[in-house]
Write a structure and sequence with these properties.
Elements: H1 23-32, E1 36-42, H2 50-69, E2 75-83, E3 86-93, H3 98-102, H4 108-118, E4 122-127, E5 133-140
Parallel strand pairs: 1-2
Antiparallel strand pairs: 2-3, 3-5, 4-5
Helix pairs in contact: 2-4
Length: 146
Amino acid sequence: MLRRGDQPHEGAPRQPEPGLARLDALLSATRSAGLDVRLAVSGAPRTLPPLADLAAYRIVQEALTNALRHAAARRATVSLAWEPGELRIEVVDDGRGAAGAAAGGGHGIAGMRERALAAGGRLEAGPLDGGGFRVAGRLPLVGMGT
């Protein structure tokens, strides 16, 4: 089962799980916290299966949280590429790269990878040459007629 946090789960969630429909609010909150974040979208957005929609949102959320908390990033770019059969997600920041990744200690990258796998996708994450960090995921558009 996917992690919900460090505390044991105490009953059902009190509100619907987020998805990409709430991405603008996430980006706005991230900007308010001090990270200059840009969004790039290519292709025609489509409705994702619920598990993939939640995974996409959580991957972006965790990548941006890591950029703020651990990488001392100033800028990040979130890219969503709607392609035949899959959604590609990429979050790149200008933070400390490998040094920022080592400072974590939580379940962030492992949790993102677990979410992608649970939705039938995959995820890669790691420091970039010359600084910065990249999270890249692919989620299938199962049953979307693609």
